[in-house]
Design a protein that fits this description.
The protein is an alpha/beta fold. It contains twelve helices and eleven strands. The chain has two domains: 184 residues, 3-Layer(aba) Sandwich (D-Maltodextrin-Binding Protein, domain 2), CATH 3.40.190.170; 134 residues, Bacterial extracellular solute-binding protein, family 7 (D-Maltodextrin-Binding Protein, domain 2), CATH 3.40.190. Helices cover 43% and strands 17% of the residues. It has a six-stranded mixed beta sheet. Strands 2-1-3-10-4 form a five-stranded mixed beta sheet.
Length: 331
């Protein structure tokens, strides 16, 4: 394994035996499995493949990462469970699927919390993000970094949505996150949590009227085939922790831990840029595909109904400190 001077000294001091290329132990690569629920056209897949290349290069081929997209190894909750149990090495999925394990993470999904992508990066790449990722260690999850899904926007197959009144009565697929569910209840919708891997069929069969996701994912998952209306509500920004089994991570040599953390954090920056770059072109493609787009819905009216009420629920349980830190990072 390629070592920096620091990791070599750290490992030597700890008495850790490291593999070297050409040794019998290194003759056959150790394979690691990386699972996610998004389609192969999504930025998660491109970033995961780059992550795999980085791990192979930085370990001189001792470790190889196999990427399984599109729910090939299970739904959002199933792959999280498999990582906790150790049968999958890495997974990435949206933050809302982790809030049952670490409820304080619900803060990241509060409506209209983030002001910009720079605000997201300031929170997730610094001490605030480190603290929130550490909350998962009690559930045997090591969150290596935080990637993104992006700004959530509303689609449905019944009517254009420009004001809060237009949402009333719609049955909408949401994540299982309490903040998402309450926000849509306040708007008069009927929120219906379900796995992302089940969503296309639910939209196609009319089990739900609509859903909310970033334009990049609406395009890549081909929701435009079963949804007519898109409203750029940008009502929340969804982050996504890249995770592995905490016990496995702790057992690795310090040099390998550094490789995994470095690759995960570098790819977080790369993947976010991929998503940002794709937003404008994705919207154009959705219009070309026939979606009718409300580009400037009354976001202020939406925010007035949901923001304070949903924040109050979070503050009642966790206080104001973390929420104030996140809001303060916008400046």
């Amino acid at each position: 394994m390629k070592l920096t001077r620091r990791t070599a000294l750290t490992s030597a001091a700890a008495g850790v035996a490291l593999f070297s290329i050409g040794s019998p132990a290194a003759a056959k690569a150790t394979r690691m499995r990386f699972a996610h629920p998004h389609p192969t056209s999504d930025s998660w897949q491109a970033a995961a493949l780059q992550f795999a290349d980085r791990i192979k290069t930085d370990t001189d081929g001792e470790y190889e990462v196999q990427v399984f997209p599109n729910g090939g190894l299970g739904s959002d909750q199933q792959i999280i469970g498999a990582v906790r149990g150790g049968s999958i090495d890495f997974c990435i999925t949206g933050n809302p699927y982790f809030t049952g394990l670490a409820p304080v993470l619900n803060v990241l999904d509060l409506p209209f919390l983030f002001q910009s992508r720079n605000h997201v990066a300031a929170v997730m790449d610094g001490p605030i993000g480190d603290g929130m990722r550490s909350e998962l260690e009690g559930s045997n999850i090591k969150a290596l970094s935080t990637w993104d899904i992006g700004w959530r926007n509303l689609t449905n197959d019944r009517r254009a949505v420009a004001t809060p009144d237009d949402i009333r009565g719609l049955k909408l697929r949401t994540t299982p996150n309490p903040a998402h569910i309450k926000a849509f209840q306040l708007l008069g919708a009927s929120p219906t949590p379900m796995a992302f891997t089940e969503l296309f069929t639910a939209l196609e069969t009319g089990t739900v009227d609509g859903q909310e996701n970033p334009v990049t994912l609406i395009l890549n998952a081909r929701f435009y085939e079963v949804q007519k209306h898109l409203s750029l509500t940008r009502h929340a920004f969804t982050t996504a922790p890249l995770c592995m089994n905490n016990d496995k991570f702790a057992a690795y040599p310090a040099a390998l831990q550094d490789v995994l953390l470095g690759a995960a954090r570098d790819m977080a920056v790369t993947q976010r840029q991929m998503n940002e770059d794709a937003e404008a072109t994705s919207l154009a493609e959705l219009k070309t595909a026939g979606m009718e787009v409300v580009e400037e819905p009354d976001r202020a009216a939406f925010a007035e109904i949901v923001t304070e009420a949903v924040e109050q629920d979070f503050v009642a349980t966790f206080g104001t400190d973390l929420l104030d830190q996140i809001k303060g990072a916008a400046s």
